[in-house]
């Protein structure tokens, strides 16, 4: 990407976006704190969706609530240009530990970007589309929105994600979540063990089979799980056992092969014991994240201009998993990490939750939003990037 000094017009647009966001600062930080104080789980984020939709509507956006068949999704738009910039707002929390993944920061940063861009939409020839995307932590709301056509007209999709440090360009693992249950026959463990079919043994055999398979797993694959029930008394042969498992791999193609092998491991437990197996995929499978290099460099330049240190990540470096990966397979996408000091806390940990409304987290909301807005300005004013993105949309319509 060119390192030449931006044209004065671009500087003016950026400064306009900065001033606009400064005028909305109290509202977006208040939103972040409100989301943090009132966590809601996947597909249940009614108050979060209403808070964001109300704020956008009050700022003049055209808001569609309960969009795409999801009660906690929305679409808020400003402008009518042919270049549609999709900004994804996440706002679901984790069971028991609230916003331990920082989605209050993610959602408020998305709103910051949309608010900063809205007054410039007509001049830039863009449509700002703020998309409320529920259920990232479980279920995959963005996949629901993809299937409903929410991204069909989107030329570039973006969001930032809270993290202990800034990063851009990294990938993520494809994931499939499974609910496992074995049904056997309950019996007295001493008096009539031969009359029982031990469901816990079926699950144990499956776990051993999975452990044995780890040596042959494709590099980067991860299988993790927890037993959620396996009997209640030592003198009763368990007639039911259940577990939840995640399978992850470097790509959707690799994930399909891994799932087939792990399924066979669970089937082995049923075959060996005579228990009946029920295996159910939970929510949608998430694809690996494929970030757009040009968009990523534009974001990195914008964030660094705001005084942040943003190392370029190795695309082979993979973090967790996100349904933004599914979006990235259809639409040019970025999903940079926006960092703030959280001590030694790690994500998905109660300690991380406690840092979500600190001054550093508030700065992440504002910097992440403004960096996305400046990225959108670059995409809209760079003729080559604009042509590329519009050509991609046109190609999807053929």
Summarize the structure in words.
- The chain has helices at residues 8-37, 46-58, 103-117, 121-124, 141-147, 199-213, 252-273, 293-305, 324-328, 350-354, 359-381, 383-397, and strands spanning 62-65, 74-78, 83-89, 126-132, 156-158, 161-163, 174-183, 187-188, 222-229, 236-237, 240-249, 276-286, 333-334, 337-339.
- With 398 residues, the protein is of the alpha/beta class.
- The protein folds into two domains: 8-172 and 289-397, 3-Layer(aba) Sandwich (Aminopeptidase), CATH 3.40.630.10; 174-284, Alpha-Beta Plaits, CATH 3.30.70.
- The strands form four sheets. It has a six-stranded mixed β-sheet. A four-stranded antiparallel β-sheet has the order 9-11-7-12. Strands 6-14 form a two-stranded parallel sheet.
- Strand 1 and strand 2 (74-78) form a beta hairpin.
- The radius of gyration is 23 Å and the shape is elongated.
- The chain starts with 7 loop residues before the first helix and ends with a helix.
């Amino acid at each position: 990407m060119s390192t030449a000094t931006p044209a004065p017009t671009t500087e003016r647009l950026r400064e306009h976006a900065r001033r606009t966001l400064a005028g909305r600062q109290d509202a977006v930080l208040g939103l972040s704190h409100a989301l943090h104080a009132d966590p809601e789980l996947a597909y249940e984020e009614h108050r979060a969706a209403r808070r964001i939709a109300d704020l956008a509507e009050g700022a003049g956006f055209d808001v569609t609530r309960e969009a795409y068949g999801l009660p906690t999704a929305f679409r808020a738009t400003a402008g009518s240009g042919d270049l549609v910039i999709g900004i994804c707002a996440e706002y679901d929390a984790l069971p028991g530990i609230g916003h331990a993944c920082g989605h209050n920061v993610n959602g408020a940063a998305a709103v910051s970007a949309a608010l900063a861009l809205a007054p410039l939409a007509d001049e830039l020839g863009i449509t700002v589309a703020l998309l409320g995307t529920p259920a990232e932590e479980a279920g995959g709301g963005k996949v629901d929105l993809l299937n409903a056509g929410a991204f069909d007209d989107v030329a570039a999709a973006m969001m930032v994600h809270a993290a202990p440090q800034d990063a851009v360009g990294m990938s993520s693992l494809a994931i499939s979540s499974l609910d496992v249950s074995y049904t056997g026959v309950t019996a007295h463990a001493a008096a009539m063990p031969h009359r029982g079919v031990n469901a816990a043994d079926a699950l144990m055999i499956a776990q051993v089979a999975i452990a044995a398979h780890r040596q042959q797993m494709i590099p980067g694959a991860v299988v993790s799980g927890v037993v959620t029930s396996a009997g209640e008394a030592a003198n009763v042969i368990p007639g039911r056992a259940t577990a939840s498992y995640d399978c992850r791999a470097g790509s959707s193609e690799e994930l399909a092969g891994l799932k087939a092998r792990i399924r066979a491991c669970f089937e082995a437990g049923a075959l060996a014991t005579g228990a009946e197996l029920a295996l159910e995929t939970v929510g949608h499978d998430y694809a690996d994240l494929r970030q757009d290099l040009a968009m990523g460099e534009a974001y990195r330049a914008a964030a660094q201009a705001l005084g942040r240190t943003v190392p370029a990540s190795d695309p082979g470096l993979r973090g967790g998993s996100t349904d933004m990966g599914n979006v990235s397979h259809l639409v040019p996408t970025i999903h940079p990490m926006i960092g703030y000091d959280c001590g030694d806390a790690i994500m998905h940990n109660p300690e991380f939750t406690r840092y979500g409304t600190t001054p550093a987290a508030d700065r992440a909301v504002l910097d992440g939003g403004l960096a996305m807005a400046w990225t959108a300005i670059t995409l809209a004013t760079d003729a080559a990037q604009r042509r590329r993105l519009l050509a991609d949309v046109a190609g999807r319509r053929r």
